Amino acid sequence: MKKNLLLLIVITIISFQVYGQKGVELGKKGLEVMNEKDYDKALTYFEKALKINPNQLNSLYYSGFAYEKKKSYKKAIEFYSKCAELKEFPEVFTRRGTCYFLIKEDSLAIIDLTKSLELKPENSEAIMQRAGAYRRTGQYEKLLDDLNSHLQKVPNDFYTKANKATALTMLERYEEANELFINLTKEKPNEYRLYNGVADTYMKMGKLEEALNSIEKALEINDKYANGYITKAEILIKMDKKEEACKAFSKAEKNGFDMEEDAAKKLAIKCNE
After folding, report:
1. Residue 42: helix, strand or coil by DSSP?
2. Against a cut of 0.70, is the pTM above it?
3. Which of 81, 97, 148, 173 has a beta carbon 3.0–4.6 Å from 113's, enabling a disulfide?
4. How far apart are CA 109 and CA 130, in angstroms?
5. Mean of pLDDT values over 90-115
């Protein structure tokens, strides 16, 4: 009787091990398929794996990642949250914070991205996403502090420097912003958006000829740049060249600028007077 009971226990343990191993294998197969960008098929494997073991960390995390890639951000957040309950690691907070940012839940995004940076301070993706959330919520001093902190670790991070120039503009520190934008054009001379930054700061400093020359450079590189035409129109209005300004405004509209933006609304009023 004791031998039979012992045998039953051994068989049960082996069965659980085999069953658990099957869940792990399904998770690995899902990851292989996901690497081929077949997210729907990957999710079927992860779902099967989680039926065997609802707490399998990899399948939870990569289910979230697959849903994120499918732009099902709220569903992704569900899986990342389950994952974070089991284990806190920087990537899960970065991913969940990014999803919150993409659905414009900026306060929650900032909390998650801050947590990610506490666990992994050199996480560039987290700091850039948090910068976006700070920018969208108008927390420009915090944005600038964040960017400066990151630049101490990675002084040649181009995109962080570009964001810093934008933050300085928002804080009305136009001369500093202008100088930084100009330096960045030397690093990436074909990045037309930088010239828009140069033009915008020159305009706000009252240097309209310099501003116009800079925005013409941006439009020379990309003649479909809708934001550039809006900046050009704003400069020309300040130069009392209404007819030319309205032509630039029409090009912005033609190239898909959001006409609900404040700058567009103000130009529309001017051009319809």
Report:
1. helix
2. no
3. 97
4. 7
5. 96
What CA–CA distance (Å, rounded) separates 259 from 266? Answer: 10
Query: Structure tokens of 135?
Result: 């920018």
CA atoms lying within 13 Å on the CB side of residue 63: 27
Q: What is the DSSP string of 84-148?
A: HHH---HHHHHHHHHHHHHTT-HHHHHHHHHHHHHH-TT-HHHHHHHHHHHHHTT-HHHHHHHHH
pLDDT higher than threshold 60 for residue 1: no
pLDDT, position 18? 36
Start-to-end Cα distance in the chain: 100
- Give the pLDDT score at 21: 59
Mean pLDDT over the full length of the chain: 87
Alpha-carbon torsion (212, 257, 175, 128), positive or negative:
negative
Distances in Å between the Cα of 8 and the Cα atoms of 15, 17, 18, 21 are 10, 14, 15, 20
Residue spans per domain, the chain: 169-273
Query: Judging by beta carbons within 10 Å of its beta carbon (0-12, 13-18, 19+), is residue 36 exposed, middle or buried?
Result: exposed
Average pLDDT for residues 58-87, to the nearest whole number? 93
Please check the confidence at residue 4 and state whether its pLDDT lies above 70.
Answer: no
Q: Which fold has domain 169-273?
A: 1.25.40
Q: Which of 29-38, 88-97, 117-126, 258-267 has the highest mean pLDDT?
A: 88-97
Measure the CA–CA gap between 21 and 87, rounded to whole angstroms.
21
Q: Contact at 8 Å (CB) between 42 and 33?
A: yes
